[in-house]
């Protein structure tokens, strides 16, 4: 997107010479001699740079497309990991608890449209919704981009930040170690994971998954509702219920994190693909306009040269006797 | 996390369920036969850097790399 904006701005600046040419066509005698050959040179340089930009954006689009294909199947398969948990424990986005932790998932690299801003926006909303006199909300940030955005207004509330996730292809072990580190370093009653769920190459749904701490699950279970059904399951081993709930909550967190990270990576690649597509299209449009300007100014300068020759010959008395 | 009764040995050792299950999964992966074993182990690479924040300032990041328990 950023690149598209830059291209558009460049294009706007370049319409100036076209207008200038129009006016110079009308008042041709006032224009200083030789000025047209300079503008052709400028336009030619600009054309070259735009062509290079187009090449780069096209290449980036191809790379994003191939990465997307690799990560898409994994993301779709990973959905099977959290679905049983949601069936068993339910998703409780409205849970009202004291210690909230917002886990914002974003990308390390830019040039991928607005997906990072969306997740940051949603995180800010969650922060505002869950803040009160005796409540506290902290951020845990994955990826450079959300860090840069949240640094501006809420750096006091950042608890942890994690980067360089995508150095190796994403896998469950990595995300579970990461989830483990988050669990060890923050105190929480509810973890709210914000990420972009991959829908298609051009649409991503900002999504919030809520994970409650075992104590809160137990409290909710006692007050009835969907969680009360947990008692009807037969559980092997002589472990206590709170222990099982704790294990479940930890495992649920790592599974949901795995899915969130994959979905977000998938959305990132998709968004980058469409952003690069539109910016190479913009570069193409601009190149067309520039070619037109270039040809026109070339034609005009030739015409001008002809006119000069003609004038000299005409007024030198060759044709007027 | 007060749970009445005996806690499992791994939680007593300060592990979370995630660490415990990762170690178990790693053991299972090590039981594979050779061409599959190397493939499965190379797939599960860990790399990320983590930094804690104190008073709005990031502390020095720590890098977690490579497979745990190896």
Largest sheet of chain B: 3 strands, antiparallel
Helical content of chain B stands at 40-55%
Number of distinct helices of chain A: 7
The appropriate CATH architecture of the domain at 82-226 and 240-271 in chain A is 3-Layer(aba) Sandwich
* Overall tally of structural domains of chain B: 1
Question: Which structural category fits the helices and strands of chain B?
Answer: alpha+beta
Helix content of chain A: 55-70%
Radius of gyration of chain B: 17 Å
Strand order of the largest sheet of chain B: 2-1-3
Subcellular location (chain A): Membrane
Protein name (chain A): ATP synthase subunit gamma
Family (chain A): Belongs to the ATPase gamma chain family.
Pfam families (chain A): ATP-synt
Summarize the structure.
The complex is a heterodimer of chains A (321) and B (70). Chain A is 64% helix and 13% strand.
How is this structure best described in words?
The complex is a heterodimer of chains A (321) and B (70). Chain A is α/β, with parallel strands linked by helices and 321 residues long. Chain A has a domain at 82-226 and 240-271: 3-Layer(aba) Sandwich (Pyruvate Kinase, Chain: A, domain 1). Chain A contains 7 helices and 5 strands. In chain A, helix 3 links the parallel strand 1 and strand 2. In chain A, helix 6 (214-222) crosses helix 7. Chain A is elongated and about 115 Å long. In chain A, 38% of the residues are buried. Chain B is α+β, with helices and mostly antiparallel strands and 70 residues long. Chain B is flat, with a radius of gyration of 17 Å. Chain B has one domain. Chain B contains 3 helices and 3 strands. Chain B has helices at 9-12, 17-30, 34-43; strands at 47-54, 57-58, 62-65. Chain B has a 3-stranded antiparallel beta sheet, with no helix packed on it. At the A-B interface, strand 3, helix 5 and helix 7 of A face helix 2, strand 1 and strand 2 of B. Strand 3 of chain A pairs antiparallel with strand 1 (47-54) of chain B. Chain B: This is ATP synthase subunit epsilon, mitochondrial. Chain B: InterPro entries: ATP_synth_F1_esu_mt (IPR006721), ATP_synth_F1_esu_sf_mt (IPR036742). Chain B: Its main location: mitochondrion. Chain B: It is found in: Mitochondrion inner membrane. Chain B: Pfam families: ATP-synt_Eps (PF04627).
């Amino acid at each position: 997107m950023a690149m598209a904006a830059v291209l558009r701005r460049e294009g706007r600046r370049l319409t100036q010479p076209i207008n200038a040419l129009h006016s110079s066509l009308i008042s041709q005698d006032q224009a200083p001699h030789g000025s047209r050959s300079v503008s052709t040179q400028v336009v030619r340089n600009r054309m070259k740079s735009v062509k290079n930009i187009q090449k780069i954006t096209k290449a980036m689009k191809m790379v994003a497309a191939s990465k997307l294909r690799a990560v898409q199947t994994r993301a779709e398969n990973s959905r099977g990991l959290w679905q049983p948990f949601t069936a068993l424990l339910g998703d409780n986005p409205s849970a009202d608890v004291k210690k909230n932790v917002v886990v914002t998932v974003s990308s390390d690299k830019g040039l991928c449209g607005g997906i990072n801003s969306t997740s940051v926006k949603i995180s800010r909303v969650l922060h505002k919704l869950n803040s009160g006199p005796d409540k506290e909300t902290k951020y845990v940030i994955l990826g450079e981009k959300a860090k840069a955005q949240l640094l501006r207004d809420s750096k006091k509330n950042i608890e942890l930040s994690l980067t360089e996730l995508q150095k190796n292809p994403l896998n469950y072990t990595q995300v579970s170690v990461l989830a483990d580190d988050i669990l060890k370093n923050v105190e929480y009653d509810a973890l709210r994971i914000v990420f972009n769920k991959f829908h298609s190459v051009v649409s991503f749904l900002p999504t919030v998954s809520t994970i409650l701490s075992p104590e809160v699950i137990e409290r909710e279970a006692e007050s009835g509702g969907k969680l009360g059904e947990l008692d009807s399951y037969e559980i092997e081993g002589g472990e206590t219920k709170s222990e099982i709930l704790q294990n479940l909550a930890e495992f649920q967190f790592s599974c949901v994190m795995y899915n969130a990270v994959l979905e977000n990576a998938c959305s990132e690649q998709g968004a980058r693909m469409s952003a690069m597509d539109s910016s190479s299209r913009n570069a193409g449009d601009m190149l067309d306009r520039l070619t037109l300007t270039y040809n026109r100014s070339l034609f005009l300068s030739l015409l001008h040269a002809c006119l000069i020759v003609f004038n000299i010959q005409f007024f030198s008395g060759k044709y007027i006797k | 996390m007060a749970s009445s009764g005996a806690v499992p040995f791994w939680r007593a050792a300060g592990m979370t369920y995630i660490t415990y299950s990762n170690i178990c999964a790693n053991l299972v992966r090590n039981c594979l036969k050779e061409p599959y074993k190397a493939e499965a182990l190379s797939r599960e690479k860990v790399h990320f850097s983590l930094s804690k924040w104190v008073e709005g300032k990031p502390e020095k990041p720590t890098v977690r790399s490579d497979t745990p328990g190896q």
